[in-house]
Amino acid sequence: MHTSLRTPSDILKILLVDDEDVVLHATREYLKTCFSFDADIAASGSSALARLSENEYDAIIADYEMESMSGLDLLSAIRERGDDTPFIIFTGKGREKVVIEAFERGADGYVQKGGEIRSQFAELAQKVRAAVFSTRSARAVHEQDTRHRILFETMGQGVIYQNRDGTIIEANRKLQLLSSITRHDILNSLGGLLLFLDSIPRSDLSPVVRENLNRIEAYALTIQKQIEFTHDYQVLGLEKAIWQDLSRCFQKASDQFDTGRITVDEHLSGIEIFADPMLEKVIYNLIDNALRYGGPTLSKIFGYYRTDGEDLIWIIEDDGAGVAPEMKDQIMQRGVGCNTGFGLFLSAEILSITGMTITETGTEGEGARFEIRVPKGMFRLGTDQRTEERG
């Protein structure tokens, strides 16, 4: 395994894997002549694994379609060995599912075949160099962390590690632990405060005192929600994105509310979204937003979808008060709103992890309408799904 942190402009040693002999040799010559890559070749996945057992490479470039072992199967076999060598996969156009699966299995990049040859190989070279530099940097940091941890664990005295300008480096893990402990303690204290507030008999109190107690309780609840938000934001993006059934997520989120006379329904059956595991939180926040601000006219909250070119537009709308025009551009920002102002901001952050965007397009007085644009390759439709809007 490489340990030095060289720059990506060094001559890189590459393993090319392709079962088409002409393509394999032509690619090697092109990368050598134009980009100074030193490339070994393998005509199959098994040959590639054999070479990897004997040699170290800066990166691997593999075709997706190979007879005996596909590029994805080769990638899985390499990662199962504990080998983190950067892996770039070639795939033809219209193979978005392959791209997603490649990233799920640990690929570092992909390049689509076809198009103008110079630009294609320039993109390939750039992705190889970027992946190599990223991997070398991560390895160097990991090795440094390991050395520091061994040092800290074996020394009998307390140690603070600093770099040359005095900045503390070994802080992130301890700060995360401190954050978790502090959050737990604050929530426990708030829980006790709320219990005491709830136990105070208010019937004999003056209106002013009752109003002050209600305000104290409201402030305590706001602090509680803000502290809970810090946990959600801290874990955001730590888990890998996964395919999720949108209808099931909608139902799980809506089941957490007692909506009374307000109906909550969806036409999202058969749709899967590639998103952060906190996707359900997005739906929860949007339903919560409707229930809080929909007003007396609110009677239904509805989820459905339509397609727009190659994108999917997933919609959650209601028939309540709607959003004022001057608030539309600000509503997804942190701290904007009458409550904590974190819910919609967190929703936008969760969606952005896999390239989704959210905008409010409703009409004030007729209801709020949140449109979530899901880019091509980040959604799957069942075979019975039609392409027109379903509402």
Written overview of the protein:
With 391 residues, this protein is an alpha/beta fold. It has three domains: 13-143, Rossmann fold, CATH 3.40.50.2300; 172-235; 242-381, Heat Shock Protein 90 (2-Layer Sandwich), CATH 3.30.565. The chain contains ten helices and 13 strands. It has helices at residues 21-35, 45-54, 71-80, 96-105, 117-154, 172-199, 207-235, 246-254, 279-293, 343-352; strands at residues 13-17, 38-42, 59-63, 87-91, 109-112, 242-245, 263-266, 271-275, 300-308, 311-318, 357-360, 369-374, 379-381. The strands form three sheets. A five-stranded parallel β-sheet has the order 2-1-3-4-5, sandwiched between helices. Strands 7-9-10-12-11 form a five-stranded mixed β-sheet. A three-stranded antiparallel β-sheet has the order 6-8-13. The radius of gyration is 27 Å and the shape is elongated. It starts with 12 loop residues before the first strand and ends in a 10-residue tail after the last strand. Mean pLDDT is 79; it is low at 1-9, 155-160, 166-172 and 386-391.
Radius of gyration: 27 Å
Relative helix content:
40-55%
Which structural category fits the helices and strands?
alpha/beta
Largest beta-sheet characterization: 5 strands, parallel
Total domain units: 3
- What's the total number of strands? 13
Mean pLDDT: 79
CATH fourth-tier homologous superfamily of the largest domain: Histidine kinase-like ATPase, C-terminal domain
* Tally of alpha and pi helices: 10
Order of strands in the sheet with the most strands? 2-1-3-4-5
Q: Poorly predicted ranges (pLDDT <50, ≥5 residues)?
A: 1-9, 155-160, 166-172, 386-391
Instruction: Kindly report how far apart the N and C termini lie.
Output: 55 Å
Task: Give the DSSP E fraction (strand runs of 2 or more residues).
Answer: 15-25%
In the CATH hierarchy, the third-tier topology of the largest domain is known as Heat Shock Protein 90
H/E topology pattern: EHEHEHEHEHHHEHEEHEEHEEE
CATH class of the largest domain: Alpha Beta
3D shape: elongated
Query: Can you name the CATH architecture of the largest domain?
Result: 2-Layer Sandwich
